Automatic annotation (TrEMBL):
This is Importin N-terminal domain-containing protein. Residues 334-377 are annotated as: Disordered. Its main location: cytoplasm. It holds the Pfam family TPR_IPO5. Keywords: Cytoplasm, Nucleus, Protein transport, Repeat, Transport. Residues 31-99 form the Importin N-terminal domain. It comes from the Eukaryota. Residues 361-377 have a biased composition (Acidic residues). Residues 344-354 have a biased composition (Polar residues). SUPFAM superfamilies: ARM repeat. InterPro entries: ARM-like, ARM-type_fold, IMB1_TNPO1-like_TPR, Importin-beta_N, Importin_beta, TPR_IPO4/5. SMART domains: IBN_N (SM00913). It is found in: Cytoplasm; Nucleus.
Length: 901
């Protein structure tokens, strides 16, 4: 196709491109509108490619911009573009890849990748062969341009390149790339490694065939003088560690020595190399391979934890007081709400628990926040840097080597912690926090000296030192709480509360987070200090800027979770509620700040119980309204997509969870609110939502309303139970968990009216309890629910006893005495009475479960004893003695003491 631009059109587009580089927002908006208009003309895109590839008289930024606008057009409008125009753009791109300008080559590369991604590589069959041929060009710019494009394609389409649909082009490409590892240009060497690195993690067959050549070539380039090359070598080695440890093993000593040097590089290679220690720590050979190098590695990691001078400038580390400066909205990270999940408390020998409650958090993944993510939470500092990586590496290595690491670490800590230079001292405090988990036992003898020293560092004149000290102290909170209060807890609390009111925003944030950790560790130990704590937290309300206000909500919610009903005193309520309600009234329904505030109120409502009554009506009404609005918006956007935008369902989820908190806290008092609202109809809709988190929170609320005011749930049971049965799908663990729990709560209220619903749920529950992959929380809730179904409908459930009794007993032996465990065991006793043969093969498991009670109620104790004695009588003395010989000694003794058997 030959196409020529018209002079007038070309000038118009060049003028627009120039204007769009203006800093004036009004001009930019006008240009944006004009560009949208021009998209109506089919050959507008021809002009854009012409400016990029042919108009050598224009400056590079303008030409490049033309290519980037074209890229966006292809991304958005590709399907509407005429095939002839796409063909023209493709051919021009391939011709321009060798442009003398690196900027233009890079832009053309981006354009090529975008076209390949939109249409799929199979619609451009000549692309890869052409690019591979261009690699052999004697002209540097052609070879480099082609490699740049190939690297982007490898990054974007690694899987496709290995597919049979394309005839496995990698079989040709990988040997080809390997030839360029020894090219004279560092840029080309770097492209070659970066291309192959894309195929390591997936163990791509074409690469595995050449793995030895690849590794040999990587080693050859390890001492390359080019920074990019070294960075890519480090990246490749880190990935190989996970994928082909067998091939690296013979060279491990040299690799470790190499990475030690690279981790000290003055540029970003150091970060790539530092990742190596994180990866190595996960390998079984870590201890053996690293032991000879630990003494060299530890000081390198601690040095890597220092703030660089650039970091300090970016962090405004020299600005001590900034509490009056408003936050920029873009500095506030989005928060994610965790929906409620019903969990059991683990049993221990002296704890009583009044039943468990739906808690927050997803069991889909263990809730492991990376402590290094928010250690220096600053949007200006790149999220992951050498400092955080070094600290994380020291942490994982401390977990590998445990206290054996201390002889090396203690001298380093002594030297850094008490250093005159605040940057070194700060890195020492960070290192002390990083090793807290792994080296806790060995650190205990040093803590009586270190904790008071750290508490004194909370008033250091440098804000960055005060902030990191908060974090490190939070890592030792568990030990502090276990000591006599006057020694460490009280002084720590007093100082942390002062830091919550610090004049520096970073310190406020670190202190609030550390205090939340302390609250979780101390729980009711904080009750004597509640007045003092609340005074500080409430004072912070008037002082904090936007970002820290959100963290303050979290600290207050955690306090409520930790001290529970002890918060329900008029003087505490009068301090805490007015500022919370004031914020609540100020926020609009579409403001995402409602999330943390609603989460906080949910914890407060649960803790205050009847103390929340004066506040509950407006809170309840607003939650109902948030759910209604979200459902309406969802309906509108589904009915006419494009006209209405999709709702943010988090508003609905958070509102459902706050209603759960109200139902649990207010118990029967919520009845008057429920009766005058359409909550049951809303719940019916939410329980069928396509989003698992919405269903998860709906089932938690259903369970809580069943406990609080079953009379209003009862009329809807025939609609609700089939939905619960359909959600017993362990693929969505938390949804399944809450549905299971709700079924158990409903059965307790329905009693023998549960009978018609047993076929809807029993088979799935038995399948879940027998699945080896079922997580602990779900196992416990499933066992409790099966027990409860057996309690109310023993004749229907007992025939299946043999299918679940062993798993049932194993799951419930570990939870504390509470109402749920009580009702489940009563159900088991009923089922055994109906079907004694069902328990015989697994009777030892039943004995063990019976022994797990600390103090069962008298009538339950009698039921358990009767079953044990009945079995003993049935089998006769001699058989019983033989049976008891299999018991662990502790079990025999416990049964003798508890049940006189």
């Amino acid at each position: 196709m030959t196409w020529e631009p018209q002079a007038e059109g070309l000038n118009q587009i060049i003028t627009l491109l120039k204007q769009s580089q203006s800093t004036d927002n009004a001009i930019q908006r006008a240009v944006q509108m004009k560009l949208e208009e021009l998209n109506q003309f089919p050959d507008f895109n021809n002009y854009l490619i012409y400016v990029l590839t042919k108009l050598k008289t224009q400056d590079e930024p303008t030409r490049s911009l033309s290519g980037l606008i074209l890229k966006n057009n292809i991304r958005i409008h590709a399907t509407h573009l005429q095939p002839a125009i796409i063909e023209y753009i493709k051919q021009e791109c391939l011709m321009a890849l060798g442009d003398p300008s690196p900027l233009i080559r890079a832009t053309v590369g981006i354009l090529i990748t975008t076209i390949a991604n939109k249409g799929g590589l199979q619609t451009w069959p000549e692309l890869l062969p052409t690019l591979c041929d261009m690699l052999d060009s004697q002209e540097y710019s052609v070879c480099e341009g082609a490699f740049g494009a190939l690297q982007k394609i490898c990054e974007d389409s690694a899987d496709t390149l290995d597919s049979a649909a394309l005839n496995r082009p990698l079989n040709i490409m990988i040997p080809k790339f390997l030839q360029f590892f020894r090219h004279s240009s560092p840029k080309i060497r770097s492209h070659a490694i970066a291309c192959i690195n894309q195929f390591i993690i997936n163990r791509t067959q074409a690469l595995m065939l050449h793995i030895d050549t690849f590794i040999e070539n990587l080693f050859h380039l390890s001492s390359d003088e080019d920074r990019e090359v070294r960075k890519n070598v480090c990246r490749g080695l880190v990935m190989l560690l996970e994928v082909r440890m067998d091939r690296l093993m013979p060279h491990m000593n040299n690799i470790i020595e190499y990475m030690l040097i690279r981790t000290q590089d003055p540029d970003e290679t150091a970060l790539e190399a530092c990742e190596f220690w994180l990866s190595l720590a996960e390998q079984t050979i870590c201890k053996e391979a690293l032991t000879p190098h630990l003494a060299q590695l530890a000081p390198v990691l601690v040095r890597g934890m220092r703030y660089s001078d650039i970091d300090i400038i970016i962090l405004k580390g020299d600005v001590e007081e900034d509490e009056m400066i408003p936050d920029r909205e873009e500095d506030i990270k989005p928060r994610f709400h965790k929906s409620r999940t019903h969990t059991q408390k683990a049993g221990n020998m002296n704890s009583q628990d009044q039943g468990a409650r739906p808690m927050e958090g997803n069991d889909e993944e263990e809730d492991m926040d990376d402590p290094y993510d928010d250690m220096d939470d600053d949007s200006n500092l790149s999220d992951w840097n050498l400092r955080k990586c070094s600290a994380a590496a020291l942490d994982v290595l401390a977990n590998v080597f445990k206290d054996d690491f201390l002889p090396i670490l203690l001298p380093i800590l002594k030297e850094t912690l008490f250093h005159q230079d605040w940057q070194i001292k700060e890195s020492g405090i960070l290192a002390l926090g990083a090793i807290a988990e792994g080296c806790m036992n060995g650190m205990i003898p040093h803590l009586p000296e270190l904790i008071p020293y750290l508490i004194s560092c909370l008033s250091d004149k440098k804000a960055l030192v005060r902030a990191i000290t908060c974090w490190t102290l939070s890592r030792y909170a568990h030990w502090v709480v276990s000591q006599p209060h006057d020694q460490y807890l009280k002084p720590l609390m007093e100082e942390l509360l002062k830091r919550i009111l610090d004049a520096n925003k970073r310190v406020q944030e670190a202190a609030c987070s550390a205090f939340a950790t302390l609250e979780e560790e101390a729980c009711t130990e904080l009750v004597p200090y509640l007045g003092f704590i609340l005074k500080t937290l409430v004072f912070a309300f008037g002082k904090y800027q936007h970002k820290n206000l959100l963290i303050l909500y979290d600290a207050i919610g955690t306090l409520a979770d930790s001290v529970g009903h002890h918060l329900n005193k008029p003087e505490y309520i009068n301090m805490l509620m007015p500022p919370l309600i004031q914020k609540w009234n100020m926020l609009k329904d579409e403001d995402k700040d409602l999330f943390p505030l609603l989460e906080c109120l949910s914890s407060v409502a649960t803790a205050l119980q009847s103390g929340f009554l004066p506040y509950c009506e407006p809170v309840y009404r607003r939650c109902i309204s948030l759910i209604q609005q979200t459902l309406n918006q969802d309906l509108a956007s589904t009915a006419s997509p494009g006209q209405f935008e999709l709702p943010d369902k988090d508003f609905m989820i958070v509102a459902l969870d706050l209603l759960s908190g109200l139902a649990e806290g207010l118990d029967g008092h919520i009845e008057s609110l429920v009766v005058s609202s359409n909550i049951m109809q809303l719940l019916y809709q939410c329980m069928q939502d396509s989003m698992p988190e919405v269903r998860q929170s709906s089932f938690a609320l259903l369970g809580d309303l069943t406990k609080a005011c079953f009379q209003h749930v009862h009329p809807f049971i025939a609609d609700f139970l089939p939905i619960l049965g359909q959600n017993l799908n362990p693929e969505y663990i938390s949804v399944c968990n809450n549905a299971t729990w709700a079924i158990g709560e409903i059965s307790i209220k329905l009693r023998d009216d549960t009978k018609p619903y047993i076929p809807l749920v029993l088979a799935q529950l038995i399948e879940i309890i027998n699945n080896p992959n079922t997580p602990k929380t779900l196992l416990e809730n499933t066992a409790i629910t099966i027990g409860r179904l057996g309690l109310v409908c023993p004749l229907e459930v007992a025939p299946s006893l043999q299918q679940f009794v062993r798993q049932w007993c194993s799951s419930l032996r570990n939870i504390r005495d509470n109402e749920e465990k009580d009702s489940a065991f009563r159900g088991m006793c009923q089922m055994i009475t109906v079907n004694p043969v069902g328990v015989v093969p697994d009777f030892i498991f039943f004995c063990d479960a019976a022994a797990s009670w600390m103090s069962p109620k008298a009538d339950l104790h009698e039921m358990l004893q009767k079953i044990l004695l009945g079995f003993k009588t049935q089998v006769g003395e001699e058989n019983w003695s033989r049976f008891v010989e299999q018991f662990p000694q502790q079990l025999s003794e416990r049964l003798a003491v508890m049940y006189s058997i």
